[in-house]
Design a protein that fits this description.
CATH class: Alpha Beta
Strand order of the largest sheet: 3-2-1-4-5-6-9
Number of helices: 11
Strand content: 5-15%
Order of helices and strands: EHEHEHEHEHEEHHHEHEHH
Number of strands: 9
Shape: globular
CATH superfamily: NAD(P)-binding Rossmann-like Domain
Largest sheet: 7 strands, parallel
């Protein structure tokens, strides 16, 4: 078995930040770290009322640590630094930063420039903004961990959503670069690459509707409806957000870089690299099938 590149991360007594934390995987990660004994988990979301509401509900359950909500547009680098400064001033040094916030478009090359710019800033540059602020501090302290939520799309592709596929590849590439460049200085880096997860982002439901679905969590997202991108993922094995969060926390405890709750994704990625032409031919067949699927 290959040796893990990171030191095992244990959330007990730690300060954890989760962006996109009021919905889906982010809310599930928050619950998981809180239940595993984190001292403080900060839910960061574009919607401050929702982040505070989810924080209150989680804090009222199991766990003894604090759960607090905060507002941030993760695409804003200056605001990201200001929030990190405020969190560390109020709660202490950040031990784990989960760059989890992300958006999808359900579009192809027809997406306009503004849409490409927005998804690039949220799905890639948000991670850069956080790392730019935290890395010097973590290197000085001799520790700190960055968890990037990418997607199976980062390792293969996401039919029906070109901007999402491109930016998730970028998120994985950035995480790898940080791990290689700063890992020897005590900085841990992990990249979460799930396939289908039962979240609002996949099923295009509103926050209130999704809260009533099995395994769902309250939150909001872009509405993908029955787009090819959503159908492509829904045709695969779909996990609950809580399953993904538990798997992720366990993988962090083992010090792993690449976290794949759907183990078949590693097999897909291996086939893609072994025979790319055959892989593309197979994906074309899947695309054709989905185009015919009502």
């Amino acid at each position: 078995m290959t040796k893990s590149v990171n030191k095992p991360f244990d959330p007990r007594g730690k300060v954890v930040v989760v962006t996109g934390g009021a919905s889906g995987i982010g809310a599930a990660l928050t619950r998981e770290f809180h239940n595993r004994g984190a001292d403080t988990v900060v839910i960061v979301d574009l919607n401050e009322d929702r982040s505070r509401g989810v924080a209150e509900r989680i804090a009222a359950g199991n766990g003894n640590g604090a759960v607090v909500g905060a507002q941030l547009d993760v695409a804003d680098g200056e605001a990201t630094t200001e929030l990190i400064d405020r969190i560390e001033g109020d709660h202490g040094p950040i031990d784990l930063y989960c760059a989890n916030a992300g958006i999808a478009t359900g579009t192809g090359v027809e997406a306009d420039v503004d849409m490409w710019s927005r998804i690039w800033n949220v799905n890639v540059m948000a991670h850069v903004h956080a790392a730019r602020t935290l890395l010097p501090r973590w290197i000085e302290r001799g520790g700190g961990h960055l968890l990037t939520t990418a997607s199976a799309a980062a390792m293969i592709t996401n039919l029906g959503d070109a901007p999402y596929s491109v930016t998730k590849h970028g998120a994985l590439a950035f995480a790898e670069w940080v791990a290689i460049t700063h890992g020897a200085r005590g900085v841990g880096v992990s990249c979460l690459c799930p396939q289908g997860v039962r979240t609002p982002l996949l099923f295009g439901t509103s926050a209130d509707e999704f809260a009533d679905l099995p395994g769902g969590t309250s939150g909001s997202s872009d509405d993908l409806d029955a787009s090819t991108a959503a159908k492509a993922v829904q045709h695969q094995r779909v996990l609950g957000a809580d399953e993904v969060a538990a798997f992720t926390a366990d993988a962090l405890g083992r010090g792993e870089f690449l976290i794949t709750p759907h183990e078949e994704v590693r097999e897909y990625a291996q086939k893609r690299t072994e025979d790319t032409d055959r892989w593309i031919a197979g994906m074309r067949k899947l695309q054709a099938y989905l185009d015919q699927d009502p």
